[in-house]
């Protein structure tokens, strides 16, 4: 019995592709002219499945030139070949080729009444993140799905960083610091108790709303107090986020907390660089066996303008790899989605700043533990 073969489409496939399209779809068909253009487009991928030299399916993947996204634009398998895994193999091949092209996320649309296709995508790890209304020619709606397809292979050049998800909405900083400490000390516990202890030490008391968040000064002190080398890179002097607090009494409390942090930092002799941490300096820190934790704006990740701490685990020529401690389980995210998350270096440059005209850039670099005498233990 012949085995299914997958390959890139060629011009001689045009007639078979057109025939397949007409068999599988009554509306929203791809024309012969469009198939020809997709075959000739080097950035996109048109993958065909053949059985006994007969074309029985295809998957068309579009690669966005401006982002790291790929999109399954269309997929089709002849009716008599369905139910035998052909569609799954096409999707897997599409993901592999998109990942090899440096794409991080695969997206697709599927009719909301196409239950078999929806089950397939969910089984393959896709999660719904939106809906397109009136998407098809017959005014049917489309469900939008996505899956991360690019994953980092741990390298001997960088320390392995254990993953720890934050357990509250306000403790991303402590979670990021815990991951950095655990990378440098395998005895470091990763627990919600330690997470909240660090938050109590490092919080700036007041934030935009709700519980106070943690700034670089407090996190650096928390790391130092646990015996680690720490240094701070920050683009501004003075109390952070003071302008977001309207109440004068709260402003005064925030200023007093900052004064306390600065006193303790001077006593500990922690080095503060009042300038942004560059990608080159961050990469040098990683190669030196240190772990950066970076304050970012989450706009590039989830369209939210909230300051958020992440742990930088590795870098290469294309990406900065992050552990993001926030896992939105309500949106279908899993812990695996947030480990070694690849972010384009250019995108990371925009992400690693918070605010408008004069954005804040802040980082804490955690180094190996100091010797017992200098650590004061």
Automatic annotation (TrEMBL):
CDD domains: NAT_SF. This is GNAT family acetyltransferase. PANTHER family: N-ACETYLTRANSFERASE. It comes from the Bacteria. The keyword Transferase applies. Gene3D superfamilies: 3.40.630.30, Cysteine proteinases (3.90.70.10). GO terms for molecular function: acyltransferase activity, transferring groups other than amino-acyl groups. Residues 4-150 form the N-acetyltransferase domain. It comes from Marinobacter nitratireducens. SUPFAM superfamilies: Acyl-CoA N-acyltransferases (Nat). Keywords: Transferase.
């Amino acid at each position: 019995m012949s085995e299914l073969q997958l390959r890139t489409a060629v011009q001689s496939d045009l007639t078979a592709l057109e025939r397949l399209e007409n068999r599988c779809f009554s509306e929203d068909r791809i024309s012969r002219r469009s198939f020809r253009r997709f075959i000739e487009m080097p950035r996109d991928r048109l993958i065909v499945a053949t059985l006994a030299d007969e074309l029985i399916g295809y998957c068309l993947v579009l690669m966005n030139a401006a982002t790291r996204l790929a999109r399954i634009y269309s997929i089709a398998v002849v009716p008599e070949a369905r139910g035998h895994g052909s569609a799954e193999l096409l999707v897997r091949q599409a993901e592999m080729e998109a990942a090899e092209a440096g794409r991080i996320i695969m997206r697709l649309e599927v009719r909301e009444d196409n239950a078999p296709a929806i089950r397939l995508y969910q089984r393959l790890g896709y999660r719904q993140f939106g809906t397109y209304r009136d998407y098809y020619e017959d005014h049917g709606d489309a469900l939008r799905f996505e899956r991360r397809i690019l994953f980092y292979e741990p390298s001997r050049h960088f320390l392995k960083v254990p993953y720890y998800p934050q357990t509250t909405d306000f403790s991303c900083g402590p979670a990021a610091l815990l991951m950095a400490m655990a990378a440098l000390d395998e005895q470091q516990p990763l627990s919600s108790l330690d997470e909240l202890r660090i938050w109590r030490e490092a919080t700036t008391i007041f934030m935009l709303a709700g519980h106070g968040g943690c700034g670089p000064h407090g996190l650096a002190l928390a790391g130092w107090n646990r015996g680690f080398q720490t240094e701070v890179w920050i683009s501004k002097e003075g109390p952070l986020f003071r302008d977001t607090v309207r109440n004068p009494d709260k402003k005064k409390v925030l200023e007093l907390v900052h004064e306390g942090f600065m006193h303790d930092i001077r006593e500990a002799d922690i080095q503060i660089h009042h300038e942004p941490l560059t990608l080159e300096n961050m990469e040098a820190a990683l190669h030196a066996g240190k772990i950066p934790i970076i304050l970012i704006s989450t706009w590039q990740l989830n369209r939210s303008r909230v300051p958020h701490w992440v742990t930088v685990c590795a870098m290469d020529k294309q990406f900065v790899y992050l552990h993001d401690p926030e896992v939105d389980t309500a949106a279908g995210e899993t812990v695996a989605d947030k480990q070694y998350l690849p972010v384009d270096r250019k995108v990371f440059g925009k992400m690693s700043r918070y605010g408008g005209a004069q954005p804040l850039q802040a980082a804490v670099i955690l180094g190996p533990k100091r010797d017992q005498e200098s650590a004061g233990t």
